Amino acid sequence: MRYVKDPATGNRVSRMNPETDWIIKDVPELRIVEGAFWKRVKERQEALDATPRVKGIKEGRFRNTRHGLHLLTGKLVCGSCGGTVTAVGRDYLACSNARKLRTVNNADPTSVVSWKTRF
After folding, report:
1. Which pLDDT tens digit goes with each residue over 51-79?
2. pTM over cut 0.90
3. Contact yes or no for 94/108 (Cβ under 8 A)
4. CA-CA distance, 105 to 113, in Å (whole number)?
5. Phi then psi dihedrals of residue 86, to 5 deg
6. What are phi and psi of 114, to 5 degrees?
7. Spatial separation of the C-alpha atoms in residues 82 and 101, rounded to whole Å
8. Beta strand pairing status for 12-15 and 110-111?
9. Which region, left, alpha or beta, applies to residue 10 given φ > 0 means left and ψ of -120 to 50 means alpha?
10. Strand 12-15 with 2-5, pairing
11. What residues form DSSP beta bridges with 93?
């Protein structure tokens, strides 16, 4: 890895060295796992990757999209401003506009337990 200075910003930027400059050397005494065991594990991984179920999972769109950490993320809307209701901490939900933009007076978070009992 080398560092160069960006002429536009003056900041240092890291750049990978070209592969032709790489020095690759096998150092067996530094291995954590024995070579024979490593080979068996890699063969097992390839066998699992070849199964139709794993192929289907890897080709599916669900794997490549971002998902909210909470079940209700993106599903609830603020009754005051129409903004999205997002997770605040582990067990609370609140209007994101009220918390970030201060456009709504009701910035108090609501417990997830109280939301679950409403449905």
Report:
1. 988 888 888 776 667 766 677 767 788 87
2. no
3. yes
4. 22
5. -120, 165
6. -70, -30
7. 13
8. unpaired
9. left
10. antiparallel
11. 87, 110
Half-sphere exposure of 10 (CA within 13 A, CB side): 0
d(CA 82, CA 39): 56
Of 19-23, 54-58, 94-98, 110-114, give the range with the top mean pLDDT: 19-23
Q: Which two tokens stand for residue 13?
A: 């930027």
Which tokens in the block code for residue 57?
A: 């999972």
Work out the burial of residue 57: count CB atoms within 10 Å of its CB; fewer than 13 is exposed, 13-18 middle, 19 or more buried: exposed
pLDDT single digits (tens) 74-96 = 778 887 788 888 777 777 777 88
| Nearest residue to 63 via CA among 51, 55, 75 | 55
Tokens 């490593």 identify what position? 38
